[in-house]
Specification:
319 residues, alpha/beta, Rossmann fold, 8-stranded mixed β-sheet, 8 strands, globular
């Protein structure tokens, strides 16, 4: 039986701060591990989820200089849950500003779910700055993927949870649920927005693990977390992820064929079904494709943790 890797021990940042990236937005960032180590960037999911202290622990702190940040509107970044000047391309520019701020030449980029999407788009835009990619739970930002998760598809596996997700939306508006939620987030009262945000976020949290976790669901349902997750995700989905085409990543995959890539996906991932990861692997013939047979979507599941930590260990050879 294959040995499983565990997370590294909990660790605190040796440096943290705020970087002003526009007149409106300031992003929170932190550095963990070895200040003279090899740089690796962590990109969180969502869009809108923000950082968790556990995110620091996928990497050997003696070897890596680990850089993490809250994307626009997320976590400790300011202003919270702000939708203005918040697009995929703004985030790509923020990554470059952070790289320059930290005086980093090249780095490995590590991201899951939306973080995997952003990792891919960043690599396509700046391939010269990426040594390698470690990707988990693949999302390629296509309309069909949004439809699966928020209109019809995943709904068939958790009908009782889906019914709760539908409650804020009048029956006559359920032909386009994402658009209906967007109307609430833009025009509803604060109470209506928070209620809708919790319904939206709890749906995602409820289906993220193979075996649902009450702790994870409660975290997604926390009003502070829920409002940024729901509003920013919905903002991106209504605007087709601000992509230049519906299949932007695969259409521009030639830009990153040379970059070593590890793809990790849970067999029973309902948020980002495994066929999307397979499509990416087929488009990147040299990529390593890893199926975790006893996992769903969450980066906190034992099998996914093991594969991600193993990947960060193997990527030491890239430096």
């Amino acid at each position: 039986m294959k040995n499983r890797f565990n997370l590294f021990p909990k660790i605190e940042p040796y440096e943290k701060g705020y970087l002003k990236v526009s007149d409106l937005h300031t992003i929170y960032y932190e550095e963990v591990g070895n200040p003279k180590g090899k740089p690796i960037l962590f990109l969180h999911g969502g869009p809108g989820a923000g950082l968790d202290p556990m995110n620091r622990c996928y990497f050997d702190p003696d070897f890596y200089r680990i850089i993490l940040f809250d994307q626009r509107g997320c976590g400790k970044s300011e202003p919270h849950a702000e939708l203005k000047e918040n697009t995929t391309w703004d985030l790509v520019e923020d990554i470059e500003k952070l790289r320059e701020h930290c005086n980093i030449d090249k780095w490995v980029v590590f991201g899951g779910s939306w973080g995997a999407t952003l990792s891919l788009i960043y690599a396509i835009c700046h391939p010269e700055n990426v040594l390698g990619l470690i990707l988990r739970g693949i999302w390629l930002s296509r309309k069909s993927e949004v439809y699966w998760l928020y209109q019809e598809g995943a709904s068939r596996f958790y009908p009782e949870v889906w019914e709760e997700y539908l409650k804020p939306i009048p029956k006559e508006k359920r032909g386009d649920i994402v658009k209906a939620y967007y109307e609430i987030f833009n025009n509803g009262s604060e109470e209506e927005q928070i209620k809708a945000a919790r319904s939206w976020s709890i749906w995602e949290g409820s289906i993220s693990k193979l075996i649902p976790s009450e702790d994870l669901i409660n975290s997604f349902g926390d009003p502070f977390n829920a409002i940024s997750i729901a509003k920013i995700e919905c903002h991106y989905f209504v605007n087709n992820m601000f992509a230049k085409s519906d299949n932007y990543i695969l259409e521009n995959i030639d830009q990153i064929l040379h970059i070593p890539t590890v793809i990790v996906n849970g067999r029973y991932d309902l948020v980002c079904p495994i066929y999307t990861a397979w499509e990416l692997h087929k488009a990147l013939p040299k990529s390593k494709f890893i199926v975790v047979k006893d996992a769903g979507h969450s980066a906190t599941e034992v099998g996914i943790i093991s594969e991600l930590v193993q990947a960060t260990e193997e990527y030491k050879k890239l430096y």
